[in-house]
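FAQ

Q: What does a record look like?
A: Structure on top, sequence underneath. For example:
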C-alpha cells in the first residue's frame, strides 16, 4: 500500500470546512484527479457514493463508503473498485482556523501501470495531494 500524509491550515471555522469536505458533491471541485462523484446517499457513517478518478492518465471507477464519522473531528472513507484506498480526514479547531490532516492509504493498480511507472505515480500522487489541499484552502478562504 502507498501512503500520502498532508496537512493544511484553513482560515475558516471547523464546521464550515467539515461540511464542505464531507459533502461528496464537492470532491471534484478540490480533489485534483477526481473527475466525478455521483449516486451520493449522504455524508454519515454507512453512506455511499460512486466516483471516477484519473491516475497516470488512466480513468478508474469505484465506490466509497463512509466508515467513520465524528462531526467536526474526523471522517474516514473507504474506496473500492479501480483503486482501493482509505481517506482519513482529521479536523482540529484552532479558533476560526481549521487544521486539516489527511492520510491516504491506497493501492497502485500495478498490473495496469507496471512497476516502472509506480515510482513516478507515487511522486505525482504526493504532488496532487498538496495541490488538492491548496485548492481546498483557496476555495474555503475566498
Amino acid at each position: 500500500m502507498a501512503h500520502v500524509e498532508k496537512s493544511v491550515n484553513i482560515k475558516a471555522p471547523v464546521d464550515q470546512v467539515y461540511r464542505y469536505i464531507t459533502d461528496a458533491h464537492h470532491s471534484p471541485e478540490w480533489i485534483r484527479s477526481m473527475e466525478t462523484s455521483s449516486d451520493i446517499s449522504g455524508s454519515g457513517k454507512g453512506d455511499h457514493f460512486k466516483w471516477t478518478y484519473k491516475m497516470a492518465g488512466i480513468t478508474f471507477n469505484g465506490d466509497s463508503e463512509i466508515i467513520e464519522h465524528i462531526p467536526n473531528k474526523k471522517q474516514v472513507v473507504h474506496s473500492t473498485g479501480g483503486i482501493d484506498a482509505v481517506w482519513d480526514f482529521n479536523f482540529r479547531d484552532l479558533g476560526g482556523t481549521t487544521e486539516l490532516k489527511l492520510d491516504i492509504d491506497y493501492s497502485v493498480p500495478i498490473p495496469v501501470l507496471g512497476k516502472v511507472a509506480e515510482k513516478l505515480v507515487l511522486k505525482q500522487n504526493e504532488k496532487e495531494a498538496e495541490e488538492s489541499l491548496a485548492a481546498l484552502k483557496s476555495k474555503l478562504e475566498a
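Q: Is there anything notable about this one?
A: The chain has a mean pLDDT of 91.
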